[in-house]
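Predict structure. Chain length: 315.
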Amino acid sequence: MTSDLRATSYELRANYKILSKQSLGTDVKRLDIKAEEIARRIQPGQFVMVMPHERSEKIPLSVVDADPVRGSISLIFQEIGFTTKQLGAVQINDTIFNILGPLGVPLAMEKLGNVVCITTGAGATQILPICRAHKKIGNKVIGILGAKTKKNLMLEAQLRLTCHKILIATDDGSYIKRGLATDLLREVLKQEKINLVYAVGSVDMMEAVCAMTRERSIPSRVSLHPLILDGTGMCGSCRVKVAGETVLACVEGPEFDGHAVDFADLKVRMNAFVVKQDSEGKELEWYSQQSPLNRPRSESGIFQRLRSVFQKNRP
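Prediction complete.
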């Protein structure tokens, strides 16, 4: 009996086989992974929790592309931490220990007209499927892509194929235009009638975008990614404040009304855990900061909200 259970467990994990691997730039990898059930169900705006090895941490990643016929999903990520480096080290025909998903609420889609999708850095991996979804239903998509330098730009070619028009700025002026992505947005808002702005990136960038669109009464959506540990709402680590209420980004997001997000609280949460390292980069201990704007709720409150989310999404 025990051996049968172990065999079944191994077979389930073996389904997450690496079909292909590409290097897209400095420390940027693309993996095509066999994940038939996820490929059939994933929708734009959702994400997966990836666990490269049995003892690895779980990390949230956006699914850039899905092929239901092939039964595969595509992940693009930057090797910036221990777990992403573990993921980047896997080879073709290796298997990922576990992938949980689809998670989160699918993108709220509506034919509106002119839609601006603005992102910076690694946010391009999240904005690409959103651009594709808006283009598919007939919206005119204007893409704005920002990065520190030309080397830090991600998915430029894919976004050019997807968007009706794309604007690019780099902080140091090493490519196209010197400036910030928000500078380009300001120009677009002056030149064209925009019906929706979707922003993915740093908290400062998303806050600046929402400040601009609020002045012009333009609806804005943002994708929030605070610390997510399990992706199912059980830990409560991804609590954020939206419209005065505490919500869980992993099960009630990650997409929210940007004008309702408490960005001051979000900034505290994004820096809630600081790692102290020794001279060799080894983690010594964690320090935490408690948000004065978002006091922790009782466990019963977390589970009540989680239960209501599951009931609402029950088929």
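Summary: The radius of gyration is 20 Å.
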